Amino acid sequence: MDLVFSCPSGAGRCDHVTELSALRDITGVMVSMSGQEEMLRCILDILEKRLDMFRGAIMLVDSDRKSLAVGALSDEFTEKNLAAVYRKGEGVIGQVFETGKSAIIPKVSEEPRFKARIYSRPGNIRKNTSFICVPISLNKETIGTLAVDMSFRSYECLKEHEQFLCIVAGLIAHDVHNRRLAHMEREMLEFENMRLKTALKDKFRPENIIGDSSSMRDVFIRIHQVAAVDTTVLIRGESGTGKELVASAIHYNSSRADKVFVRINCAALNENLLESELFGHEKGAFTGATCKRTGRIEEAEGGTLFLDEIGDFSPQVQVKLLRVIQERQYERVGSSQTLKANVRIIAATNRNLEEAIENNSFRQDLYYRINVFPIYLPPLRERKSDIMLLANHFVDKYAREMSKKVGRISSTAINMLSAYNWPGNVRELENCIEHAVLLCNDEVVQGHDLPQTLQMPLAISNSPAGSLKHQIEVMERDLISDSLKRNAGNVSAVARELGITGRMVRYKLEKMKLDPHRFSYRRYGK
């Protein structure tokens, strides 16, 4: 049953042709528009232009299901409260929300429960205004309300308009429901996508390699793809990127994991020593060969042989290695006995092998034999997002080794680490962190603890790096940044902690170009 308020007499019947025309326009808007708020505003605009229904308001149930919040309001009126909220039973809208029944008020000025939280209506307007509010319901649950003002008219005419608005409200209810279902499906798909991505990361990420950048995730997938088979792998990348770690990850995730993993650095040995190191030699094979020696290929029998810097092989060794890869056969230096090689070969280089082939320093046929499954390791400067993951890992590692209670890295040190180009890649980063932990006298690695190569002039100073003034400014920035972190960007709390005035803190923040809002708990996820 409808809520019936005072009903003064009046005349006038509604134009059903106009209503049908308005309904056609409303359905057209609902079909063509994707944005909910824009679509609802267009519906209110059609009601105003076609049926003289103004000050429209569509309220939708909040996430707590206990109150209504503004879904859309008429654009034309500037005096409106977008933050208006109605709980069940509050005012006329709240009563419709609670009961799920329409409310018709022929004269707003005669209804004491009328709250007018959204639009202000002066006395002269209230005397000549009627109000209709209908529930937006779905499956016997009220999920919102549709309310409009109309010029004062008879109850009979308002009743007909109320029935029309109920039809519009029904269309809105199904649209809202469908949008919420689609939103829930998107959230579920996003959640499942994130879950699968996380599962894939955990599945493919080797335990000995740290990184979460997209380029490193590609590396992890490549490792996973090739580990299970004995395919020859060529790992390419600059010096210090971790090629040996990748080779180790491939071996220990393969069927040969319980066998030996033998490493040999080809660049560290001359041609004669390298040949003997690889293939072994017989006693008396050359001057100094006082006893028989087992080569690395033989040591790696059943396991994996990692040839680092394969681009430095001499042409003679390249020929013999090619035979090992193709025929799995070789002879010790000074011996005519042919030995079988049951080894998996993983090679690595930081050289441009294609260029080496052009200048005849590397055999093309060997290149094709080792380049069956290439893995490219990006330099650290191309995976900036991994710098702090690696830095924190190395801080923990060397803090344990040195028995120090170093727990984190200061903001200034983070900025310095992020700004540096890292020509030595991960190896250089590890050395820098080891240096910093060694010098650190606190629980926090400060900027001045990092090596001199990273001591670049900061924006706050034109002083030369290493000067007393520069070092003081770096330390001052560290202290203020750390205090801002501890106090969630509260300048007054920072001033109390550091024993200076708030005015001094604000001056220094402006000079250092530090925004205290960046240090709020919300930003850091606390």
Major sheet: order of its strands? 1-5-6-7-2-3-4
Rg from Cα:
38 Å
What composes the largest sheet? 7 strands, mixed
Domain count: the total is: 3
Please explain how this structure is put together.
This protein has 526 residues and is of the alpha/beta class. It has three domains: 3-182, Beta-Lactamase, CATH 3.30.450.40; 214-378, Rossmann fold (3-Layer(aba) Sandwich); 381-524, Orthogonal Bundle (Helicase, Ruva Protein, domain 3), CATH 1.10.8.60. The chain contains 19 helices and 18 strands. It has helices at residues 16-32, 36-51, 91-99, 123-127, 155-204, 214-227, 243-252, 271-279, 296-299, 315-327, 353-358, 364-370, 387-401, 411-419, 425-439, 468-486, 491-498, 502-512, 521-524, and strands spanning 3-4, 54-61, 67-73, 85-87, 103-105, 129-138, 141-151, 233-236, 261-265, 280-281, 293-294, 304-308, 329-331, 338-340, 344-349, 373-376, 408-409, 444-445. Strands 1-5-6-7-2-3-4 form a seven-stranded mixed beta sheet. Strands 9-12-15-8-16 form a five-stranded parallel beta sheet. It has a two-stranded antiparallel ribbon with strand order 10-11. Helix 6 packs parallel to helix 7. The two termini are 51 Å apart.
Structural descriptors:
5-stranded parallel β-sheet; 526 residues; 19 helices; Rossmann fold; 46% helix; 3 domains; disordered C terminus; elongated; Beta-Lactamase; alpha/beta; disordered N terminus; Helicase, Ruva Protein, domain 3
